[in-house]
Specification:
single chain; mainly alpha; 6 helices; 82% helix
């Protein structure tokens, strides 16, 4: 029963926050300039940092969690090859291994998120590089709360992207550049026809 109320409570909090925002924060938008030919260069530090974070997490997790996984894998192999073991015994060992791997994945994500948060806090961010010169001037003129909200959102978004890994960011960059390339080709085709 408690788990079914959690999404409802989350939605209620989000709606309440949005209503408060509409009531008290009369903020103008901050425009970001996206130039397709510079996306790869702008996102390169984010991708590189994500790759470093992935490797750092692997270095931390491997000596800590691999011995337990190896032990459970050996138990599962022994139970599977033992004709005296029942199906229930084998499934119990397999379930222990699944739980162990799931816990390891959670630990890895938490470590990656913390490292991504630190990287974003020191300045490796997703949205900040897209502020154009005009937006940067406008950004200096907005309220402190507006600036801090933008920076906070950028830090959290960047941390989540970096925690997701370099391949995830690469696929985001690829889909954005593919979108822009397709639209450029459509525009050229309509001009030529």
């Amino acid at each position: 029963m408690k788990n079914s109320l959690l999404p409802i409570a989350g939605i209620a909090i989000a709606v309440g926050g949005f209503v408060l925002f509409l009531r008290y924060a009369n903020w103008w938008g901050i425009n970001i300039a996206v130039q397709p030919e510079t996306i790869a260069n702008i996102m390169a530090p984010l991708v590189l940092t994500s790759a470093f974070i992935e490797r750092a997490v692997e270095v931390v997790i491997t000596p800590w969690r691999d011995p337990g996984a190896d032990k459970l894998t050996a138990e599962l192999k022994a139970a599977s090859s033992n004709p005296a073991a029942t199906q229930a015994q084998t499934e119990a060992v397999a379930e222990k291994l699944r739980v162990y791997v799931a816990d390891t994945t959670r630990f890895a994500f938490i470590i990656a998120l913390l490292l991504g948060l630190l990287a974003a806090m020191v300045g490796i961010r997703a949205l900040w590089p897209f502020l154009d010169a005009h937006s940067a001037d406008v950004f200096r003129g907005v309220s402190c709360a507006h600036r801090n909200t933008f920076i906070g959102f950028d830090v959290v978004l960047s941390a989540a992207l970096m925690a997701g890994g370099a391949s995830g960011i690469h696929s985001v960059v690829s889909s954005v550049t593919s979108f822009f390339d397709a639209n450029t080709e459509k525009a050229r085709a309509s001009v030529n026809s």
